[in-house]
Specification:
The complex is a heterodimer of chains A (342) and B (205). Chain A is mostly helical and 342 residues long. Chain A is globular. Chain B is mostly helical and 205 residues long. Chain B contains ten helices and no strands. Chain B is elongated and about 105 Å long. Classes of the chains: A mainly alpha (342), B mainly alpha (205). The interface between A and B is medium-sized, with 27 and 26 residues.
Chain lengths: 342, 205
């Protein structure tokens, strides 16, 4: 390390940060590729099919083959499209999804930027992601894409509020906006994790997370039976693939956040001998994997929500639930049972 | 010129450019997107002033929510540039008056007498574990609790008013009662009929 520091001199902090970014984004992209494979396999088995099984051993090379196929395809820009924004939209979709990973801690020390307002930063970054969708829909100059982006914008704005309130609950319980502190506040077995004192918020956050990533059953933005493929109907080749990557990167992000804020992050299931031998990183990955499995499970299980049902659920159900629970947690913290909510 | 100054001038240049493009660009959607860029760079400058809570809240509230709704509306406009240009010269005197007043007011407030470096010094560099957010919360709920509550009440009134405006109901709109939908039983919708198997009539083959 010292040798490298000497080699780069003043540019060392920059190089070191870049190296850390690559160390996060590289495995992330691989995880995204294999999440698509996992999705096809899991849903395949749920629907009594086998799923991809031709490319490589049990189809393990399928995501690579898909990637190469999409790379080789032409990116068609519709003649009436706004060229700059059309190309910018996929970038705007994936950039916040990746930028949010800067504050995600993988262990008490392993975090790119241990910023104090990490939770706020996450909320800000996930709310910026909607621009890619809106711009894609508008720049395509296509009715279907436009309808898709309108639906998506309305949905994301609606669910962001409930999501924000759920995070306020976490903030109250942990008394910190720092993600490392939040996980440290949940030490001591699964009954100290925040899913228990903040149970309604945990459920709201999970469901709002599904809505925020435009996944089934909240995928009216894509709604292939009504508006073909929604906001990315005009995209092809790698530009389409970037939207796809962003969707899955967002899924992993929401799963990671759920794991960190409600499921104890790197804390073991029980803080006793055989469980705390397993390193924290493995626990975190296991929890992220569990939430991701829920995402896939939802998709295979539930029919798509109708648009008015989505709006009703977001505004009339989730926001009141989170508000009431905020009051409840706040009031309980003043009583002698307050320790249960920390 | 150290690194921070360089970054500041970079942000300031982008902010001015974006602000300028908001009012000069022809397409309203582009204008809205330039406004987003302006908010983002302003947040960057606030970050440099060690106001990370305000900076992130700016992105969260204005970029993440307000501008999304703005864009939402602007996207659906029928952009007719000729109509937009109409009456430019009629409005110019009034606009020029308003602009001049704004500039004078800003000059008075932001003049070197009240905003100079000796009155508003550069923010003190805090340690990495200093929590801007906690400090802000403490101030808001102790020293400034009455102005804060007043602002909250004003916002509440605005919310109530906005919702009250949407309360009118059209006679033609179709509305479904979700509770009724959920409470539907199978027997309300389909009737199970038990009937004997029938033979197809023999006249047709």
């Amino acid at each position: 390390m010292a040798f490298l520091e000497n080699l780069f001199g003043g540019a060392w902090p920059l190089v070191w940060t870049l190296a850390k970014i690559i160390a996060i984004v590289g495995p992330m992209m691989l995880a995204v590729a294999y999440l698509t494979y996992a999705e096809r396999k899991v849903i395949g088995y749920m629907q009594v099919r086998i799923g991809p099984n031709r490319v490589g051993y049990k189809g393990l090379l399928q995501p690579i083959a898909d990637g190469i196929k999409l790379l080789m395809k032409e990116i068609i820009i519709p003649s009436g499209a706004n060229k700059i924004l059309f190309v910018l939209a996929p970038v705007l979709t994936i950039a916040p999804a990746l930028a949010a990973w800067a504050v995600i801690p993988f262990s008490p020390e392993l975090v790119l930027a241990n910023v104090d307002a990490g939770l706020l930063y996450i909320l800000a970054m996930t709310s910026v992601g909607v621009y890619g969708v809106i711009i894609a829909g508008w720049a395509s100059n296509s009715k279907y894409a436009f309808l898709g982006s309108l639906r998506s914008a309305a949905q994301i704005v609606s669910y962001e509020i409930a999501m924000g309130f759920a995070l306020v609950g976490v903030l109250m319980a942990a008394q910190s906006l720092n993600l490392v502190e939040i996980v440290k506040g949940q030490a001591g077995g699964m009954f100290s994790w925040y899913w228990l004192p903040l149970f309604p918020m945990f459920i709201v956050y999970l469901i709002a997370g599904v809505a925020e990533t435009n996944r089934a059953p909240f995928d009216v933005a894509e709604g292939e039976s009504e508006i073909v493929a929604g906001f990315h109907v005009e995209y092809s080749g790698m530009a389409f693939a970037v939207f796809f990557l962003a969707e899955y990167a967002n899924m992993i992000l929401i799963a990671a956040l759920t794991a960190l804020m409600f499921l104890g992050g790197w804390q073991p299931l029980f803080d006793i001998a055989p469980f705390n031998w397993i390193p924290g990183f493995v626990w975190l990955m296991f929890k992220i994997g569990f939430v991701l499995f829920l995402f896939l499970w939802f998709r295979a299980t539930f029919p798509r929500y109708r648009y008015d049902q989505i709006m009703r659920l977001g505004w009339k159900v989730f926001i009141p639930i989170t508000l009431v629970w905020l009051l409840f947690v706040g009031a309980m913290m003043q009583t002698r049972y307050g320790y249960l909510f920390h | 010129m150290n690194f921070e100054t360089m970054v500041f001038y970079g942000f300031a240049a982008i902010l001015l450019f974006a602000g300028f493009r908001v009012i000069t660009t022809r397409n309203p959607v582009h204008a809205a997107l330039f406004l987003v860029l302006a908010f983002f760079t302003a947040a960057g400058i606030w970050l440099m002033l060690e106001a990370e809570f305000l900076a992130i809240t700016l992105v969260l509230v204005y970029v993440g929510a307000v501008m999304v709704l703005f864009l939402f509306v602007v996207m659906m406009l029928d952009i007719n540039l000729d109509r937009l240009r109409e009456g430019f010269w009629d409005y110019l005197p009034l606009a020029a008056f308003v602009a001049t007043m704004l500039v004078i007011e800003m000059a008075v407030v932001l003049g070197s007498r009240s905003f100079g470096l000796d009155i508003v010094p550069a923010p003190i560099q805090h340690a990495a574990d200093y929590s801007n957010t906690k400090e802000l919360g403490r101030l808001l709920y102790t020293d400034y609790v009455y102005p804060f509550e007043l602002a909250a009440v004003v916002l509440l009134v605005a919310i109530v008013a906005a919702i009250a405006l949407t309360m009118r109901r059209r006679k033609t709109s179709k509305y479904q009662d979700p509770a009724q939908q959920v409470n539907v039983k199978r027997a309300d919708r389909v009737r199970l009929v038990s009937m004997a198997a029938a033979q197809p009539s023999s006249t047709k083959s």
